[in-house]
């Protein structure tokens, strides 16, 4: 069964950096694109970034462009999100998610909480 | 990349049907037949319920159905059950490898 386990969340000061990791298992990681999606307190889900199966192309939301970088290591079945210049509005639960065989997400992790606060 | 519009909350009694709407634009919902819906119990991983507007993944009860008209997609849950109480989120492909979600709808089973 597909398992996605996020780690690396925590409390960071405004302007600081944090790197999230997502360990994937139960499927051929190197064959699928992967997403990061976040949910701020009391808000809906927000798509953050997508990386193609081989890491050749990356795409991200305007709200994080230039600050967040998605990457992957297919030899370690691991997805990453490097977050720099963090702001209070980046406070959210960050979900790692697997791309489906079409234009949708089919599996999600349980999320990692990131709190940006002084 | 504006969020899709969903009602904040809907409710229904056991056995009844409810419909949750998801309104976007011609650049997302109206432009592609790639709307998906997710059920989310707080503290758990979201679960895919509908993809490609109206397709159900294996294991999702046929009480859940999806449709689309113009820039608005809908999720209908018939024969409401207590365990259906959750947050529901719509999502649409928006072109150029970008996606947009709705604000989420809290379903209460009375």
Task: List its traits.
heterodimer; A: 118 residues; mainly beta; seven-stranded mixed beta sheet; four-stranded antiparallel beta sheet; globular; B: 110 residues; six-stranded mixed beta sheet; three-stranded antiparallel beta sheet; 9 strands; 0% helix
Could you walk me through the main structural features you see in this protein, from its secondary elements to its overall organization?
- The complex is a heterodimer of chains A (118) and B (110).
- With 118 residues, chain A is mainly β.
- Chain A has strands at 3-7, 10-12, 18-25, 34-39, 45-51, 58-60, 68-73, 78-83, 92-99, 105-108, 112-116.
- In chain A, the strands form two sheets. In chain A, strands 2, 4, 5, 6, 9, 10 and 11 form a seven-stranded mixed β-sheet that branches.
- In chain B, strands 1, 3, 4, 7, 8 and 9 form a six-stranded mixed β-sheet that branches.
- Chain A binds chain B through residues 4, 35, 37, 43-47, 50, 52, 57, 59, 61-63, 95, 100, 102-111, and chain B through 1, 3, 6, 32, 34, 36, 38, 40, 43-48, 51-52, 57, 89, 91, 93, 96-104.
Largest beta-sheet characterization of chain B: 6 strands, mixed
Overall pLDDT score of chain A? 97
> What's the total number of strands of chain A?
11
Structural class of chain A: mainly beta
Which value, in Å, is the CA radius of gyration of chain A? 13 Å
Total count of helical runs of at least 4 residues of chain A: 0
Q: Low-confidence runs of chain B (pLDDT<50, min 5 residues)? A: none
Helix-strand topology string of chain A: EEEEEEEEEEE
Percent of residues in helices of chain A: under 10%
Please, what is the average pLDDT of chain B? 96
Rg of chain B, Å, rounded: 13 Å
The protein's oligomeric status is heterodimer
Through-space gap between termini of chain B: 35 Å
| 3D shape of chain B | globular
Number of strands of chain B: 9
* Content-based structural category of chain B: mainly beta
Which consecutive residue ranges of chain A, at least 5 long each, have pLDDT under 50? none
What is the end-to-end distance of chain A? 40 Å
Give helix % range of chain B. Answer: under 10%
